[in-house]
Write a structure and sequence with these properties.
Layout (H helix, E strand, L loop, with lengths): L32 H9 L4 E4 L5 H10 L4 E4 L16 E2 L4 H5 L6 H11 L6 H20 L23 E2 L5 H17 L3 E4 L2 E8 L5 E8 L4 E5 L3 E3 L8 H8 L15 H8 L4 E2 L10 E3 L8 E4 L12 E3 L14 H9 L5 E7 H6 L9 H10 L3 E4 L2 H8 L3 H17 L19 E7 L8 E2 L6 E3 L5 E7 L19 H15 L3
Helix pairs in contact: 2-6, 2-14, 4-5, 5-14, 12-13
The structure holds flavin-adenine dinucleotide (FAD).
The site of flavin-adenine dinucleotide has 42 residues, from strand 6 and helix 14.
């Protein structure tokens, strides 16, 4: 597997908000030799690799129980993906639900996870999420976390939950950090937690029986040191910032860098090297509607088309590179639409329309003025305009015969009052008045999907199902096991927090 462990190759220009400074970390190579050799000789009760969404609660709860904990963090500060994340959490039985008189249960949440994910979530981990999500959110609330006025909701765009159990704080993921960072700092000040920053774990040390005995850490100046630990938690996040690894594991390109720059997949490599294995790469589901700045991979987003029928019902026709329609454009389910889009070559599609649709439909790109759109059709490679459908297809790079056939069939069904070939119901206009237009959408993702296999105690397991002694994992290093092959709202942040908490509070024995 392609991995970039160590800190030397990471873009450190990331703009961390002020909350990043609230936990006191030290750089290992600046410590006196006797302190460093003490770390190598006297095992910590728990070494948490990665001080992010899952790692911080694990450290807090382990320290609450009196454990001596080291948090080893590759970045200059703790916080991880929560700096970028929407921080949307789905949880049953929260104080926020109670305040609104909403009845909910872990069973109902579990049923929803399995329904929304089309039974692709790992049942054991989904059950843990459903049971522990509520207590985790209530723990945040007990410590001052609050949610947006309009939350909880059933959805903010994905396929909805059956009750309102989905929420975020007013500052997205940062609202969570503002609650958990001070709790960790109390333990740092009390001497129960040692935080090492700019410290990348590059290796796990193992005893003769394979049980993990500690970690090897590389500092920013490439100094390597051993740290001994009776238990080690991999909480390093996924590989959403490592395009080589993402492609190798998922079999498709990382079309956009939306992940935290330190999400390089180190924990995946460390876990596999220690005897674990990866699963769930086929849980990949792309996000659609975004238009890329250019042909590069990874690229950056230029703008987003409004293609969710719940927000703006499509007037356009969607085709793939062969010019084929592949989807009932007004299908109400995000997951159904995205799973079909995922099957299309190069994970892209074109929205095709004509002058009448442009004039009469609500804007396809709401954030743009008419002038911006007109300019894009003059200048941008993802936007095409032409006097005929054939010319449009050639300009856009789509098969012209396919486009003529698909649009011909779409129009003929409208003219004849017949059903749409793909059962679409919203067909206010045919695509028949020149000039014709095409806009290309490219899939993207903000997380990775392949992850380490664990048992019901979140202990990393080998292919034969044997737990690897003293080695646990939580967060995106487990891939998308909890959300499955779908956008199951809150399916990453909530389990990361809840599983980290569970490990620190109950599972890991000191
Ligand atoms: C833009 C964006 C929006 C999102 N919105 C949502 C949302 O609303 N709801 C949701 O459920 N999910 C969302 N997600 C996904 C979710 O935020 C992440 O899956 C989750 O926060 C990951 O938590 P984690 O603890 O696994 O990793 P992180 O929080 O990333 O923590 C991992 C830490 O490990 C450190 N690390 C990495 N390698 C090493 C190493 N070798 N040694 C030491 N330290 C290391 C990293 O620097 C990092 O601090 C979003 C993701 C993105 C990018």
């Amino acid at each position: 597997m392609q991995t970039k462990m160590g800190t030397n190759n990471i873009d450190l220009s990331f703009d961390w908000p002020a909350v990043a400074d609230t936990v006191t970390g030290v750089v290992l190579s600046t410590l006196p030799d006797d302190v460093r050799s003490g770390y190598a000789e006297q095992p910590f009760d728990l070494i948490v690799i990665g001080g992010g969404t899952a790692g911080i609660p694990a450290a807090i709860f382990a320290a609450d129980r009196g454990a001596r904990v080291a948090v080893v963090e590759k970045a200059p500060v703790l916080g991880g993906t929560l700096y970028l994340s929407g921080g949307l959490m789905a949880a049953a039985g929260t104080v926020f639900q109670k305040a609104m008189g909403i009845e909910d249960s872990a069973d109902s949440h579990y049923d929803d996870i399995m329904r929304i994910s089309n039974e692709t979530s790992d049942p054991t981990l989904a059950r843990l999420w459903a049971e522990l999500g509520g207590p985790a959110v209530n723990w945040l609330a007990d410590n001052g976390f609050n949610i947006r006025d309009e939350h909880p909701v059933t959805t903010t765009g994905y396929d909805p939950y059956s009750v309102k159990r989905y929420q975020s704080g007013p500052e997205d993921g940062v609202s969570i950090l503002k609650v958990i960072m001070p709790l960790l700092e109390q333990h740092v000040q009390a001497g129960r937690v040692t935080v090492l920053t700019q410290a990348a774990v590059v290796e796990l040390t193992q005893g003769p029986d394979g049980a993990v005995t500690g970690v090897v850490v590389e500092d920013g100046d490439s100094t390597r040191s051993d740290i001994a630990g009776s238990n080690v938690l991999l909480a390093t996040g996924g590989c959403a910032a490592n395009d080589e690894m993402f492609q190798e594991l998922h079999g498709l390109p990382l079309y956009r860098h939306a992940g935290y720059p330190f999400s390089q997949g180190d924990g995946l490599s460390l876990g596999v090297a220690a005897g674990g294995y990866l699963r769930g790469a086929d849980n990949y589901v792309g996000y659609y509607g975004s238009v890329a700045v250019n042909e590069q991979i990874p690229s950056e987003p230029l703008v987003t088309m409004s293609i969710d029928p719940k927000v703006r019902i499509p007037w356009e026709v969607f085709v793939n590179i062969h010019g084929e329609r592949f989807l009932r454009e007004d299908h109400p389910s995000v997951n159904t639409r995205d799973r079909v889009m995922d099957q299309q070559p190069l994970h892209r599609f074109w929205a095709i329309f004509d002058q009448r649709i442009l004039d009469e439909a609500p804007p396809l790109i709401p954030e743009w003025s008419q002038e911006q759109l007109a300019d894009a059709f003059d200048t941008h490679p993802m936007f095409a305009r032409a006097a005929s459908l054939k010319e449009l297809a050639v300009t856009a790079g789509i098969d012209p015969d396919g486009v003529e056939r698909s649009i011909g069939d779409f129009n003929a069904a409208i003219e004849q009052g017949a059903n749409d070939p793909l059962d679409r119901t919203h067909r206010p206009l045919p695509v028949s008045t020149a000039p014709f237009y095409a806009i290309r959408s490219q899939a993207w993702t903000l997380k990775s999907y392949a992850g380490l296999a664990v048992d019901e105690n979140l202990q990393v397991i080998s292919k034969s199902g044997e737990p690897i002694g003293n080695l646990y994992a939580a967060g995106e290093v487990l891939g998308a096991a909890t959300s499955g092959k779908s956008h199951t709202g809150g399916g990453s942040v909530t389990p990361a927090l809840a599983f980290g908490r569970l490990l620190g509070e109950r599972i890991i024995q000191f």
